Amino acid sequence: NAGVTQTPKFQVLKTGQSMTLQCAQDMNHNSMYWYRQDPGMGLRLIYYSASEGTTDKGEVPNGYNVSRLNKREFSLRLESAAPSQTSVYFCASSREANYNEQFFGPGTRLTVL
Amino acid sequence: AQSVTQLGSHVSVSEGALVLLRCNYSSSVPPYLFWYVQYPNQGLQLLLKYTSAATLVKGINGFEAEFKKSETSFHLTKPSAHMSDAAEYFCAVNPGGGAQKLVFGQGTRLTINP
């Protein structure tokens, strides 16, 4: 089992460019999440998908879009990147029920110049 | 809104000393609580979780945490620090309800001095 995988690992963009971060999980989880991690702020939820075909906004959704392509894959798109989106992005997945932990990918380090 | 506060963004202890990382939460309903660890340039890994079965929860690598409802706390401890414990630690709360969302604290970076 690979768990949660993310591509790319690193990316540098210029302001205004677009890109898509890819995430896949092989644990047959229904729920998937995208977070951003910034120094001193912990992880903040951008979007989540409770099940295939549904997506909902998290705490910081502005400037992002998501697609739940199928049960395995959940992508995050930046349509017009801004320097404020420089961050480390983590994808996670979990089974249903609030007591279940989330499993995290290795992260994508994004720099927007 | 649910929130998590981790007291101390940096904690430094000597090897072999007690590790104590503090976490307080706000929740109007009994929460589910988690501690995660993040080693440099890696994702988050679950250390332990509280799901109301027992107030003292044991996790991996010798860590444990005690849920204290009266203090709204879930502090993480380890009796004897090891150099390999140097990492960032995150407390998180799932406030319940329909969605399995987590609210994270700001994180505490643990440094171990030889």
Can you characterise this structure?
The complex is a heterodimer of chains A (about 110) and B (about 110). Chain A is mostly beta strands and about 110 residues long. Chain A has no helices and eleven strands. In chain A, a hairpin with a 6-residue loop joins strand 5 and strand 6. Chain A is globular and about 40 Å long. Chain A starts with a strand and ends with a strand. Chain B has about 110 residues and is mainly β. Chain B contains no helices and eleven strands. In chain B, the strands form two sheets. In chain B, strands 2, 4, 5, 9, 10 and 11 form a six-stranded mixed beta sheet that branches. Chain B has a five-stranded antiparallel beta sheet with strand order 1-3-8-7-6, with no helix packed on it. In chain B, a hairpin with a 5-residue loop joins strand 6 and strand 7. Chains A and B meet through strand 5, strand 9 and strand 10 of A and strand 4, strand 5 and strand 9 of B.
Features:
heterodimer, A: 113 residues, mainly beta, 11 strands, 0% helix, B: mainly beta, six-stranded mixed beta sheet, five-stranded antiparallel beta sheet, globular
Describe the structure concisely:
Chain A is mainly beta.
Shape of chain B: globular
Q: How confident overall, as mean pLDDT of chain A?
A: 94
Helicity level of chain A, as a percent range?
A: under 10%
Low-confidence stretches of chain B: none
The shape of chain A, in one word, is globular
| Mean pLDDT level of chain B | 91
Strand content of chain B: over 45%
Largest interface pair: A-B, 28 and 28 residues
Q: Please state roughly what percent of the residues of chain A sit in beta strands, choosing from under 5%, 5-15%, 15-25%, 25-35%, 35-45% or over 45%.
A: over 45%
The total of beta strands of chain B comes to 11
Number of β-strand runs of chain A:
11
Q: Give the low-confidence spans of chain A.
A: none
DSSP helical segment count of chain A: 0
SSE pattern of chain B: EEEEEEEEEEE
